[in-house]
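The records we work with from here on pair a chain with its fold. Taken together, the tokens spell out the fold as the letters spell out the chain. To see the layout at work, look at the sequence and tokens printed below.
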Amino acid sequence: TDCTPNISGSANYTLDLATAIIKPTYTKDAYAPASYAWTVGGAGVTAADYSYVGGTSASSAFPKIKFTAFKTYELTVKVNGNCGVNNEKTVKLTLNENPEMTNLGVDLAQTVCSGTPTAAVNLTSSMVGTTFDWLITPSIGTTTSSPLTGSGTTIPPATFSNISTTNGTVKFTIVPKNNGCSGASKELIVTVYPKL
């Protein structure tokens, strides 16, 4: 299973079978294959979902294959020997989409007074079923009794105390997760005014 971003609606993922974890191992010397034949299949997979790139083809020993859809692919290589003996192996590659956090900047900035709770933040994503992990990092002089980590789809209200004489900041680093894949993080910044 690999994770890849959604770029303009496409997976846009290239697998180089010369360097991939699922790189095939062939016999050598007198038993080395005389020819190779790759096929790509799987439930719902069509020829439009992939292509051979980088000067490789279905008859290459280690082709490069570009995938454009988030699906589970079955990659089969069939080898033929000089004595007419053939063999084949199949491996599966699942491409999952990296979720994207879709909250806008206006959702990711708050200003509160010391001792006043923040507003809850409902987190949104490009993908159904996305959950979020977050880590809270207060600036020096700003403290909280709230947990410094959390997960879910809503960041609950939290109360921060600023014992300094200048504005404090609290950074929430938020990471979206879906189907075993993590997306790019975003930050919620809370400005905390000091006590008078």
